[in-house]
Amino acid sequence: MKWQILAIGKPSLAYAKAGVEEYRKRLGRYATVDLLHDWKDAGPEKNSDTLLAASEGAVRIALDERGESWTTATLVERLRDWQMSGVKRVALLIGGADGHSPVLREKADHVVAMSGFTLQHELALVVLLEQIYRVHTVLKGEPYHR
Length: 146
Prior knowledge:
By secondary structure, this protein is an alpha/beta fold. Helix content is 43%, strand content 25%. It has helices at residues 14-27, 44-54, 72-84, 102-107, 121-139, and strands at residues 2-8, 32-39, 59-69, 89-94, 110-113. The mean pLDDT is 93.
């Protein structure tokens, strides 16, 4: 299965760039993770059109503060289910500074809050990659998740 992370805005902070690269490198053993983030923030409506078009045909997960609270265990179970049902691609959608439009949230298969806190977008991207890595190590029975 392929992971696709679609994010408005490109990481520019050094710690975020380093974190993104570290977890993308680690994930190379487990899954393909495409990171597309070259879109400028054009507001929720325009951003949503862009993200919906780029994620066509994938299971869409919109990351939004109004979403459900998933645990790592929830994501592990979802991933198992997707693998068993033949899902080829999961797209994780990270909006701009003003979040996602109601239309995008409606069209997403899942709307998930990463935290009760509002996270800076670059930090959210690093946390998201770490969780994808963690889920794959859980599925492989490796000791990373203790």
